[in-house]
Design brief:
The chain contains nine helices and twelve strands. It is of the alpha+beta class and 302 residues long. The structure holds adenosine-5'-diphosphate (ADP).
Length: 302
């Protein structure tokens, strides 16, 4: 179902194959905003702009996973994502891995930008996700990354056990190095309580997986485009909860989403628990300054 992204063993080889031999990069401008990768706008000698993300050569899997995620979202036909051109590695200047995709010129938001995004996300969450898991209803056909951390996507039949086993458990185990005795007790207790705290969704949904405002861009058409996903099939609430974590989404977005896909009773009680996953990941990737937030959320549920 997932068509594999084309891979090349040099950037020049990729440009030759995609745009004709002799294609050259005439300008490479750094783009700010990414946490993990180096991002550049390449201008080709035919005048075309291309967006390139680069990382260490050993991290090519970041980009094959990102390409698979963008392809899954594109397949739902509900919300725009940049078209992936290819990925690969290059040995020049110490070596790198790269992902090439359509360059999105950012535009002015349409008047109904937020309402449309709410409806489109609800439609994505309602699309049939059965092609994206194997052997269970929740998970994804391959592991991927949340930031630079591996995100385990082995399938489960139940959302509650998927979220416990594949989301909280690995991050809590990794965060153990920051935990004192009380934190360790709370972490163990929290895992025991997950079946009482979470609920099965009415339907499984393909999630963006890392849906903070920095991963939604207004495109040239004035509509929202999704970038940098960490997709999996899960409970739609987890995507919505993340939109609330760092803010930046309009109340009009939530109103439109809820009208198109009413929320399950009790979402407000569960949302911090979903976001605990992202806070633990921040603690594990960026350090101790996130420990207070992790403790506060664990304290809410134990
Ligand atoms: P990272 O994986 O490092 O978090 P992102 O995918 O978030 O990187 O990209 C970094 C920044 O580059 C984004 O915040 C956005 O401004 C810009 N960007 C991402 N994708 C595109 C694209 N296809 N076209 C133009 N700009 C993009």
């Amino acid at each position: 179902m997932l068509s594999k992204v084309q891979q090349f063993s040099s950037l020049q080889g990729a440009l030759d194959a995609l745009f004709g031999s002799g294609t050259k990069v005439v300008q490479a401008q750094y783009t700010a905003g990414g946490d993990i990768n180096e991002a550049r706008r390449l201008t080709l000698n035919n005048g075309m702009p291309v967006f390139m993300k680069a990382n260490a050569k050993k991290n090519l899997a970041f980009f094959t996973a990102e390409a698979a995620g963008l392809a899954a979202i594109a397949h739902t036909g509900t919300i725009s994502v940049p078209r992936v051109l290819c990925c690969g590695t290059d040995d020049a200047q110490g070596g790198c891995s790269f992902l090439l995709m359509e360059f999105l010129e950012s535009g002015k938001r349409r008047a109904d930008y937020w309402e449309a995004l709410g409806r489109q996300l609800a439609a994505m969450h309602r699309a049939d996700p059965s092609a994206w898991t194997k052997g269970g209803r929740y998970g994804f056909v391959q592991d991927n990354y949340i930031g630079a951390s591996v995100q385990e996507n082995s399938s489960r039949d139940h959302w509650v056990s998927f979220f416990r086993d594949c989301r909280l458990k690995p991050q809590l185990a990794w965060a153990d190095r920051y935990f004192d005795a009380a934190d360790k007790r709370n972490a163990a207790r929290l895992l025991e309580r997950i079946p009482e705290l979470l609920a099965e969704p009415a339907y499984p949904s393909l999630l963006h997986g890392d849906l903070w405002s920095g991963n939604v861009m207004p495109g040239h058409d004035g509509c929202a485009w999704l970038i940098d996903p960490a997709v999996y099939v899960g409970h739609a609430e987890a995507d919505l909860a993340m939109t609330e974590l760092f803010g930046g989404f309009s109340p009009r977005f939530y109103a439109a989403y809820k009208e198109a896909a009413p929320l399950q009773e009790g979402y407000d009680r569960r949302k911090d628990l979903y976001n605990l996953y992202h806070m633990l990941n921040h603690l594990n990737l960026f350090g101790r300054s996130y420990l207070g937030a992790v403790r506060r959320i664990m304290g809410e549920y134990v």
